[in-house]
Amino acid sequence: MMSNLIDNIIPQQPPIEPQSDVHVLKARLEWGEPAFTILDVRDRQTFNEGHILGAMPMANDELVSRATSSIDKSRDIYIYGASDQESAQAVESLRGAGFEHVSLLKGGLAAWKAIGGPTEGTIEALTPPGAGDYNVVSRIQEHAETQKKDV
């Protein structure tokens, strides 16, 4: 009886879609909704070069073992890889391991950058000003360089 009452007072989050658009993820980040994890299943070097801000690196070959030991199986998880195909493979692996709320982030990093989603990484930090209008890091660098010129 008590659990029904609580369920009625605190509506449950709708389950995440099997595939998500980058706009959905960006909206959740902007609302400050912390109850989800973003996994990048590309190799570690590629991850270090640039990834979605806050994403965790978990290469496909170690994905299930690492996720099982560190992430709750009922948590919302967004996954992206080098391609939607690689992402789909990772999503299936996690679902097969008992993770309930796993979503493929369509378009991955490229789609994320195209809508101005925040990124971090060594190459992201080196994006030349102008080419990275959506990149917060390059905008800050560009601003710093402009300030130096005025002095």
Layout of helices and strands:
Elements: H1 2-9, E1 19-20, H2 22-30, E2 36-40, H3 44-49, E3 51-52, E4 56-57, H4 63-70, E5 76-80, H5 84-96, E6 101-105, H6 108-114, E7 119-120, H7 122-126, H8 136-150
Protein name: Rhodanese-like domain-containing protein
Pfam families: Rhodanese
InterPro entries: GlpE_sulfurtransferase, Rhodanese-like_dom, Rhodanese-like_dom_sf
Could you characterize what this model shows?
By secondary structure, this protein is an alpha/beta fold. It folds into 2 domains: 14-118, Rhodanese-like domain (Oxidized Rhodanese, domain 1), CATH 3.40.250.10; 121-151, no CATH class. The chain is built from 8 helices and 7 strands, in the order αβαβαββαβαβαβαα. The chain has helices spanning 2-9, 22-30, 44-49, 63-70, 84-96, 108-114, 122-126, 136-150; strands at 19-20, 36-40, 51-52, 56-57, 76-80, 101-105, 119-120. The chain has a 5-stranded parallel sheet. The mean pLDDT is 82.
Tag the structure with descriptive keywords.
single chain; 151 residues; 2 domains; GlpE_sulfurtransferase; two-stranded antiparallel ribbon; Rhodanese-like domain-containing protein; 8 helices; Rhodanese-like_dom; Rhodanese-like_dom_sf; Oxidized Rhodanese, domain 1
- The CATH class of the largest domain is identified as Alpha Beta
> What is the CATH architecture term of the largest domain?
3-Layer(aba) Sandwich
Q: Total domains, how many?
A: 2
Q: SS-based structural class?
A: alpha/beta
Radius of gyration, taken over Cα atoms and rounded to an integer in Å: 18 Å
Low-confidence segments, ≥5 residues, pLDDT <50?
A: none
Tell me how many strands there are: 7
Under CATH, the homologous superfamily of the largest domain reads: Rhodanese-like domain
Number of helices: 8
Spatial order of the strands forming the largest sheet: 1-6-5-2-4
